[in-house]
Amino acid sequence: MFVAMNRFRVIKDEAGAFEDRWIGRDSQLHTVPGFVSFNLLRGPEREDHILYASHTIWKDHADFEAWTKSEAFRLAHAGAGGAKPLTLGHPEFEGFSSVDAAARGEQSV
Q: How far apart are alpha carbons 49 and 54 in whole angstroms?
């Protein structure tokens, strides 16, 4: 299993627009081999932003890598930078591989 996360520092007054953008987009994830699930998580509120994380689970790292190089990825991210800024800076990516399943020679989903 591989978990791909992006953390976003969303401008407080833009939280509604940020959530609407994610809810309304056609991610294309359902068409991609190895995709398991997606969640958009709202985290703590800070002085100048609200922390959000996109949390995507994949069968394995190779499937995630294939997604990032796919036409589906390009379509899902088309126009992402063209609108009014909703975040403070770029998202911070974090990728995690499952240790427990790998140690047992299994794939967990």
A: 16
Lowest mean pLDDT among 6-20, 53-67, 93-107: 93-107
Q: In what order do the strands lie in the sheet with 35-45?
A: 35-45, 49-58, 2-11, 92-97
pTM over 0.85: no
Residue 2 sits at the vertex; the CA angle it makes with 85 and 61, to the nearest 5 degrees, is 95
* Contact in structure between 67 and 32 (CB atoms under 8 Å): yes
Give strand ranges (E) for the chain: 2-11, 35-45, 49-58, 92-97
The one-letter amino acid at 84 = K
CB neighbours of residue 48 within 10 Å: 9
Q: Which residue is associated with the tokens 């990516």?
A: 93
Q: How many CB atoms lie within 10 A of CB 78?
A: 11
